[in-house]
């Protein structure tokens, strides 16, 4: 039992130490620039589709999320993570994560907005803050290897 604990501890330390190298911190900086750019695009589309096209904010969020999918995927692949791994495999992995994130995003957006009464534009910022951290880990360790 003690050995398993030591192995788990050393794996955890390695996992954490991978994120505190100069390269990883630089990569995280590029990821944040990409993320803020993607967020700006997504947020603007959410607003325009809801306020000017008259769509329900959940429908607007879904469309905005889909549009920012390609922008985010390509910029992360070629600039943030500088990946050379198989494009189709990455696209498939990213697509699976996209569907999961879209479902979680719409669910949280609805709960924060309709249940707690927060304006949908503020709710969107909260949702992005929840989703962003796990995306970096999944991108770095699974998708953009």
Strand and helix map with partners:
Layout: H1 2-17, H2 22-51, H3 57-80, H4 87-115, H5 120-143
Quick structural summary:
The chain has 145 residues and is mainly α. Helix 2 packs antiparallel against helix 3, helix 2 runs antiparallel to helix 5 and helix 3 packs antiparallel against helix 4.
Series of H and E elements: HHHHH
Shape: globular
Multimeric state: single chain
Protein structure class: mainly alpha
Please give the domain count.
1
If you average the pLDDT, what whole number results? Answer: 89
Please work out how many helical segments DSSP would assign: 5
Can you tell me the residue ranges where pLDDT is under 50 for at least 5 consecutive residues? none
Question: Which range does the strand content fall in?
Answer: under 5%
For the record, give the distance between the C-alpha atoms at the N and C termini, rounded to a whole number. Answer: 32 Å
Write down the Rg: 17 Å
Beta strands, count:
0
For the largest beta-sheet, the strand count, sense and barrel status come to:
none
Helix proportion range: over 70%
Features:
145 residues, mainly alpha, 5 helices, globular
Describe this structure as you would to a colleague.
This protein is mostly helical. The chain has one domain (about 30-145). It has five helices and no strands. It has helices at about 1-15, 20-50, 55-80, 85-115, 120-145. Helix 2 packs antiparallel against helix 5 and helix 4 runs antiparallel to helix 5 (about 120-145). The longest helix is centred in the N-terminal third of the chain and has 30 residues, at about 20-50. The radius of gyration is 17 Å and the shape is globular. The two termini are about 30 Å apart. About 25% of the residues are buried. The mean pLDDT is about 90.
């Amino acid at each position: 039992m003690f050995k398993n604990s030591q192995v788990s501890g050393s794996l955890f330390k390695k996992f954490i130490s991978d994120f505190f190298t100069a390269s990883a911190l630089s990569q995280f900086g590029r990821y944040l620039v990409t993320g803020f750019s993607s967020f700006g695009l997504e947020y603007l589309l959410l607003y325009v589709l809801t306020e000017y096209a008259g769509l329900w904010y959940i429908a607007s969020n879904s469309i905005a999320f889909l549009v920012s999918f390609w922008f985010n995927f390509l910029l992360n692949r070629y600039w943030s993570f500088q990946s050379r791994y198989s494009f189709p495999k990455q696209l498939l992995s990213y697509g699976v994560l996209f569907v999961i994130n879209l479902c979680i995003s719409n669910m949280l957006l609805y709960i924060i907005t309709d249940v707690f009464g927060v304006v949908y534009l503020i709710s969107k910022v909260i949702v992005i803050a929840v989703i962003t951290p796990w995306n970096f880990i999944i991108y770095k360790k699974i998708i953009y290897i």
